[in-house]
Write a structure and sequence with these properties.
This protein is of the alpha+beta class. It is built from 27 helices and 25 strands. It is elongated. The C terminus is likely disordered.
Length: 891
């Protein structure tokens, strides 16, 4: 039986017998790269030792019984003691011969090489032990035994448990490699791990041995190199105070000589040489590599290489310049922009601008029978990819002048009737007409024109919804003001109680999902499968199964999607809706099936009963003079509040069909080699689709990288700063985007205080990470997010006001909400403990420190925040002016 192999006898395919590290070193050696010589004690030697000393059952039993940090520590100590016996004479002889071939008592590094480590899907770096400057056969044999035992350290067992790796399947080889007396050393990534750029190599370099660099014990020079030509993009020279060097036994740290501390470790020529080795290694493996290197006597040595794990998608630099295209105009992130929290996809940006302008022109023309908005007055444009309403000064003046009469028409009571009898049926009809067509028989030009028609219909519908929102907002504001001012006593409930318990589309969607969960629970086998299988696997099984029970579940789920699958997570049509990707819904469904959560029917009944009880109690004790206006304001607010949610929920009616049409265009352009994948159609400009020629793969990748960089930015709510538009800054629907410190201020939108872990969700792709009791932190929440509220202990958003969807649903669920923080998703980390105060409108970041009680946030005008976030700046100014005049005329 062979227990030893030298590096030159190994290849990457030998991972089962040599482990990942040794197999890579063998592969690099055979490829002609400068690898210090060495050998590997094969996994067969580990297995032979385990068999000889009858350790297998003892080890696996100890490892399997551990499920917490203390348990792992105890098990590790017991397992380590099992590896203190002598190795067999055969193994001792083979190790002695291989070691002698390197030279007489040469210093070697002894490292573990696990059979599951350094793979593309998992990184075991640092999970087992390394022993440096090992000299002499006896020292080497002890180090080999310690390496074997390190397979069962507490951190290694915990890591494998998290990765789902069966402890009975792992084994360990041991690398013995001649040490390099390094003058300098470090690590090199052949792709930039911070931004994912595959065209950048990142080098960290320090004086002395490289182990202290890998462990993070020393400061390093950090160099970014453009891989294509070796040009240095950036070079940060550190003050390198200490270095790792050989000691009598093992290694030690010592001060770096004063003249070397701030001197570059590598010259430009050396950087280029090292980067070239990185390119050569990446090309050999065909994937970005994490490489350890050393330099001695003017030569570079490659100590090991492994695939980079968890490499992010490549992204461009985050934008910092917010210069606007038209400096004399005002750029505002409000109204429809609240449903566009991320940078826009190129195709959506091309199609939405004109659609919004046309819809606003149509609305004001209908209300006032004249063309108030001119072609360049208002538009929806982008700055660094983010959507902004653009108002010219002259256009804003006309809008403010004409808004009061427009709002008189809105408040005449016809907005709900218009939505029910015209806007909603018209939108549904247009969507139905396109859904009925055979899109495979339409030309690409016809399909693209159809997409634009659907976007226009959606924009016009959304504009119609905006005629309902200010009415609903104003009715609640006026009722709240009147109730708090002349009615409420210290024992009375807060005003929102009078508006809860009504049915609306988001609540009906939750009930539908709850009904499906209840039905599923009545079939234990089906429920167990839903809880045990990955969501996508369960959905595929349900769709393909011939079992009547599974077929019935699939039919019921499809009925839910038919009714509610069009709700948007984000208005940009690049984002799938539940009808396209229903997997996120299964997280809430599983939550309900597992018996958690509150019955939405019972919750609504309790809210309705409390509402009616509070209404009767208040009206009974009021005199006729006060009871009449309070009753009228209350009935007005109660009548329009549910309509707002119904209207908003249907904004995405066109999106399932629209995305099917774009998918067809994408398939055709893929077949014509314009793009590589059908989904890349969203990254094309409209003219590029119309032309249909050329290959845009490179442009698509550049646009994706630009988008990812833009996604890191926090867009200012109002641009440019210091212009005439600053007079509207206090009306913006979110707090300052420049907040720092541990206290984040926003708008308190649902009362209560909770301290719990945060869960930052970028979209439906993250829904699976939500745990019961987490604080839901997101840029926005639309009706499509409602299913998560059943799991959340509180809600925090970047965008939104007291009467936004997030606020209304949070109140229905009785959980605190702080909205419009502007920075929550960028300042809060998932898993971080935070304190959400829905009364003060603040979020406190907690990192294990003791904090004093926070002071209530400065009270701001809720009316301004509500309207600016719902109907736009011009509409807000006009409404307030009209309300002031109306109040004066009646007094």
């Amino acid at each position: 039986m062979i227990f030893i192999k030298h590096f030159g006898e190994l290849a990457s395919s030998d991972i089962d017998q040599a482990g990942g590290k040794a197999a890579n070193l063998g592969e690099l050696t055979r490829a002609g790269l400068p690898v210090p010589p060495g050998f590997v004690v094969l996994t067969e030697a580990y297995r032979a030792y385990i068999a000889e000393h009858q350790l297998h059952e003892q080890i696996t039993a100890l490892a399997a019984a551990s499920d917490d940090p203390a348990g792992y520590d105890e098990a590790a100590a017991q397992i380590k003691a099992l590896f203190e016996d002598e190795v067999s004479d055969t193994l001792r002889t083979e190790i002695a011969e291989a070691y002698a071939a390197l030279g007489e008592d040469v210093p070697v590094a002894v490292r573990s090489s696990a059979t599951a480590e350094d793979l593309q899907e998992a990184s075991f770096a640092g999970q087992q032990d390394t022993f440096l400057n090992v000299r002499g056969l006896d020292d080497l044999l002890v180090a080999v035994g310690d390496c074997w035992a390190s397979l069962w350290t507490a951190r290694a067992m915990a890591y494998r448990a998290r990765q789902g790796i069966d402890p009975a399947t792992v084994s360990l080889a041991v690398v013995v490699q001649q040490m390099v007396d390094a003058e300098s050393a470090g690590v090199m990534f052949t792709a930039n791990p911070s931004n994912g750029r595959r065209d950048e190599t990142v080098i960290s370099a320090a004086w002395g041995l490289g182990e202290s660099v890998v462990s993070g014990a020393v400061n390093t020079d950090n160099i970014v190199v453009r891989t294509s030509d070796g040009t240095i993009v950036s070079n940060e020279i550190a003050d390198k105070a200490v270095m790792s060097v050989y000691a009598e036994q093992r290694t030690q740290e010592r001060p770096v000589p004063a003249d070397q501390r701030k001197r570059p470790v590598l010259s430009e020529a050396e950087v280029a040489e090292l980067a070239a080795y990185g390119t050569r290694i990446e090309n050999h493996y065909g994937t970005p590599q994490d490489i350890e290197w050393a330099r001695a006597d003017g030569n570079f040595w490659i100590l090991q290489a492994r695939p980079i794990t968890a490499l992010p998608e490549p992204e461009a630099a985050m934008p910092t310049d917010w210069t606007v295209p038209e400096p004399t105009a005002m750029y505002v992130r409000a109204s429809i922009v609240e449903q566009l929290p991320d940078p826009l996809s190129p195709l959506f940006a091309d199609m939405i601008d004109g659609a919004v302008t046309r819809s606003l022109q149509s609305l004001f023309r209908e209300l006032l029978q004249e063309d108030v908005i001119r072609e360049r007055d208002v538009g929806l444009t982008t700055v660094n990819g983010y959507a902004y309403y653009r108002y010219t000064r002259s256009g804003m003046g006309r809008l403010m002048w004409k808004s009061p009469p427009a709002f008189r028409m809105l408040f005449s009571g016809g907005t709900q009737d218009r939505w029910r009898s015209y806007s909603h049926p018209r939108y549904r009809r247009i969507v139905s007409d396109w859904t009925a067509r055979d899109i495979s028989k339409l030309s690409t030009d016809e399909l693209l024109a159809g997409v634009q028609e659907l976007v226009d219909a959606a924009a016009e519908y959304y504009t119609a919804v905006q005629t309902i929102i200010p009415v609903a907002a104003t009715s609640e504001v006026l009722f709240t003001w009147c109730y708090d001012s002349v009615v409420r006593t210290k024992d009375d409930p807060p005003a929102p109680v009078f508006l809860l318990g009504y049915d609306s589309a988001p609540i009906r969607a939750e009930k539908s999902l709850y009904d499906l969960a209840t039905w599923t629970r009545s079939h234990p086998e089906l429920a167990e499968s839903l809880l045990a299988l990955p969501p996508q696997t369960f959905l595929e099984t349900a769709a393909e199964s011939q079992d009547p029970l599974w077929h019935e579940w699939h039919t019921r789920f499809q009925a839910h999607l038919a009714g509610y699958g069009h709700v948007v997570y984000n208005l940009d049509f690049i984002n799938p809706v539940p009808a396209d990707d229903p997997v996120p819904l299964l997280e809430t469904l599983r939550f309900f099936v597992s018996g958690k959560g509150v019955d939405p029917y019972e919750r609504q009944q309790r809210s309705a009963a409390r509402r009616e009880e509070a209404t009767a109690a208040v009206l009974t004790r009021l005199d006729a003079v006060r009871a009449m206006p309070i009753h009228r304001l209350l009935r007005w607010a109660q009548r329009v509040a549910p309509v707002r949610e119904d209207a908003l929920a249907d904004v995405g009616l066109a999106w399932p069909q629209l995305r099917r049409m774009l998918a067809e265009i994408g398939r055709r352009h893929q077949q014509a080699s314009v793009i590589n994948e059908p989904d890349e159609v969203y990254w094309l400009r409209r003219k590029e689709i119309e032309d249909g020629v050329g290959n845009f793969a490179e442009q698509v990748e550049q646009r994706k990288q630009l988008w990812r960089g833009q996604l890191r930015a926090t867009p200012p709510q109002l641009l440019p700063k210091g212009s005439w538009g600053d007079m509207f800054r206090n009306w913006m629907p979110a707090a300052s985007e420049e907040q720092t410190g541990d206290l984040i201020k926003g708008t308190g939108a649902s009362a209560g205080t909770i301290t719990a872990p945060a869960r930052v969700l970028g979209g439906p792709q993250d829904f699976g990470s939500m745990q019961p009791g987490d604080v839901l932190v997101a840029s926005i929440t639309t009706p499509a997010w409602t299913s998560l509220f059943a799991m959340a202990s509180a809600v925090v958003t970047d965008i939104g006001g007291p009467l936004s969807h997030s606020s209304i649903v949070a109140r229905e669920y009785g959980i605190p909400a702080v909205l419009g923080t502007a920075v929550a998703t960028r300042r809060i980390r998932s898993g971080q403990l935070i304190k959400v105060d829905g009364d003060a409108g603040t979020v406190r970041l907690l990192d294990g420190q003791d904090f004093e009680e926070i002071e209530p946030a400065t009270e701001r005008s809720p009316r301004g925040k509500i309207i600016a976030g719902s109907a736009g700046v011009a509409a807000a100014a006009g409404l307030i002016a009209w309300l002031v005049r109306r109040t004066k005329s009646r007094s």
